[in-house]
Amino acid sequence: MSEIKYIEPQQETQLYNDVCQIIDGARGRMATYANTEACLTNWYVGKRIKEDVLYNKRAEYGKQVVINLSIKLSERYGNGWGEKKLRHCIRGAETFSEEEIVYATRRQCDENKELYGEG
């Protein structure tokens, strides 16, 4: 049998701190990338709906499109894709250009890389 060696308390503390830093870094990166994807998804959904509604240029048509789409999306993806969410997506697409939303999300990822010493 191999001999069990005693680990110094400082070594154990350093190991614990290093592992915590690895886990915390991964959590931070995952949150940033998940948030980035959510932002881009919402923006592209809003852009696509906005294009359809503007193409047909009728307010009543637009209201009905959003209601019908929200019902179908909620059935498939859950209540998070209701009418209110879709209107929020449309507002985002009306407020920000594609260049602005891509720049903002890319900057967020770059800041995360710097924060965790990856960039």
From the N-terminal CA to the C-terminal CA, the straight-line distance is 45 Å
Strand content: under 5%
* Average predicted confidence as pLDDT: 88
Question: In one word, what is the shape?
Answer: elongated
Main sheet overview: none
Q: How many strands in all? A: 0
Q: Roughly what percent helix?
A: over 70%
Structural class: mainly alpha
Which spans have pLDDT < 50 for at least 5 consecutive residues?
A: none
The number of helical segments is: 4
Radius of gyration: 23 Å
What is the ordering of alpha helices and beta strands?
A: HHHH
Question: How would you sum up this structure, described in words?
Answer:
It is elongated, with a radius of gyration of 23 Å. Helix content is 82%, strand content 0%. The chain contains 4 helices and no strands. The chain has helices at residues 9-56, 59-77, 83-95, 98-115. With 119 residues, it is an all-alpha fold.
